[in-house]
Specification:
Helix content is about 40%, strand content about 15%. It has helices spanning about 5-10, 15-30, 45-60, 60-70, 80-95, 110-120, 200-210, 265-280, 285-295, 300-325, 355-365, 395-415, and strands spanning about 35, 100-105, 120, 130-135, 150-155, 160, 165-170, 180-190, 215-220, 245-250, 260-265, 330-335, 340-345, 365, 370, 390. Helix 6 (about 110-120) crosses helix 8 (about 265-280). It is globular. Pyridoxal-5'-phosphate (PLP) binds next to helix 6. Pfam families: Aminotran_1_2. InterPro entries: Aminotransferase_I/II_large, Class-I_PLP-dep_aminotransf, PyrdxlP-dep_Trfase, PyrdxlP-dep_Trfase_major.
């Protein structure tokens, strides 16, 4: 079989695909494996019960059941859902938007693929543009999502060493040199993998440099505001006509519903919708059916505030404590946990690469993600890239506790054997 260039690029097991495969295989080979590698949301009984009840009430109503299962939704997504969401965003944040500024996607991952390639790659004037990541490390799912080579560029962050054993990445404003080779800036806020939440000042700065360069600022709010609201700092939500905000119902507890949401200027939403028609024909109905009624009465915010954020905030603090106990004596730092569902552990001057440590941990029965994978668009020159691990803390507390113990044991061995 002869594959096209597209086929070669997307049909092969490169980068993220091999890693995801490896995580999946490891899990099926060892069912007792402690899974601290993936992005599955934690199981929160109140939230599960809430969605189960919603689903049941949709199924009990023949008209709603038919809309859920028996009709194609439009490629821009359920109009009532978009209208209610626009109202919520106007009500809560004062953003001047209507349902025409909103599109639904089959998961935000697929929206990123379309959006990135709408904004970067081969340009009509013969030039090339990149999606620029102002703070590497960034979300592993962006890697390989571009149709052309060199699709992502990235800047090293500044590292602020905080009191005790914490640190925080910042946008290096001086390193961020804008030119017309960039098609958009993109940040996840809170950031996967680090749990960083860019400050309001950093967002304002990125917004102003993006406007000056006449390119959009993409904010990936998969963990952010207004929902699922897994933010432990006082950061303000941000949107204006030059911002593309991506939301998702996944971390609210519905990754199986595959529902992403794009909030952007009308022309970009129109371009996205046209492309989405080609790729997907229609949007899934499950997410909007479950979430629609939660928008008009702000239940979606209440559930985030009362159940989702506290669950992760508590677990983050617990996991930091366990890491501190078990790693005592090693030269480690943890990125200040400000949101999302991960801790980012920096093992300073680690004598082996984090990939090697990942393999050793897998053999011991705990899965994490090696830090190297997240430095998308960077060259290989920065040692720091090989000294970090992403640790998900969404699993049940006993598993996370046992996983931390194994991580610490292997990290100690790595330093001792050097
Ligand atoms: N963005 C970030 C930062 C993520 O962590 C994820 C998934 O883990 C996604 C986007 C994609 O989420 P989904 O396609 O489930 O909406």
């Amino acid at each position: 079989m002869k594959l096209s260039r597209f086929g070669e690029q997307f049909g092969q097991r490169t980068g993220i695909v091999s890693l995801m495969d490896d995580l999946g295989t490891a899990l099926s080979e060892n069912p007792d494996m402690i899974f601290m590698g993936g992005g599955n949301p934690g199981r929160i009984p109140e939230v599960e019960a809430f969605f189960a009840e919603r689903l049941q009430s949709v199924l009990n109503d023949p008209a709603q059941r038919h809309t859920l299962l028996g009709v194609y939704q439009s490629p821009q997504g359920d109009r009532e859902f978009r209208r209610e969401l626009a109202k919520l965003l106007r009500r809560q944040h004062g953003w001047a938007i209507s349902e025409r500024n909103i599109a639904v996607s089959n998961g935000s991952q697929s929206a990123f693929f379309v959006l990135f390639n709408l904004l970067a790659g081969n340009m009509p004037d013969g030039g090339q543009r990149s999606i620029h990541l102002p703070v590497a490390p960034e979300y592993i799912g962006y890697a390989d999502a571009g149709l052309t080579r060199g699709f992502f560029t990235a800047s090293r962050p500044e590292i602020e060493l905080l009191e005790g054993d914490l640190f925080k990445y910042h946008v290096d404003m001086n390193a961020l040199q804008m030119d017309d080779s960039m098609g958009a800036l993109c940040v996840s806020r809170p950031t996967n993998p680090t749990g960083n939440v860019l400050t309001d000042e950093e967002i304002a700065h990125l917004d102003s440099v993006a406007r000056a360069a006449d390119i959009p600022l993409i904010i990936d709010g998969a963990y952010g505001q207004p929902f699922p609201g897994i933010v432990f700092t006082g950061a303000a939500p941000h949107w204006n006509e030059n911002t593309v905000l991506l939301l998702s119902l996944s971390k609210l507890g519905l990754p199986g519903a595959r529902t992403g949401i794009i909030v952007a200027s009308e022309p970009l939403i129109e371009a996205y919708t046209n492309a989405n028609t080609i790729v997907s024909l229609a949007c899934g109905t499950l997410g909007p059916a479950l979430a629609k009624t939660m928008l008009s009465n702000d239940d979606i915010l209440t559930i985030s505030e009362r159940h989702i954020r506290p669950f992760y905030e508590h677990r983050a603090a617990q996991t930091v404590d366990w890491l501190r106990q078990d790693l005592a004596g090693l030269p480690f730092r943890i990125h200040k946990p400000e949101g999302a569902i991960f801790l980012w552990l920096w093992l300073q001057d680690l004598p082996i690469t984090s990939k090697e440590l990942y393999q050793r941990l897998k053999a011991r029965g705990v899965l994490v993600v090696p830090g190297e994978e997240f430095f998308i668009g960077m060259d290989d020159e920065w040692d720091h890239q090989h000294q970090c691990l992403r640790i998900s803390y969404g699993a049940d507390a006993d598993s996370v506790r046992a996983g931390v113990k194994l991580i610490a044991e292997e990290a100690k061995l790595a330093y001792e054997q050097a």
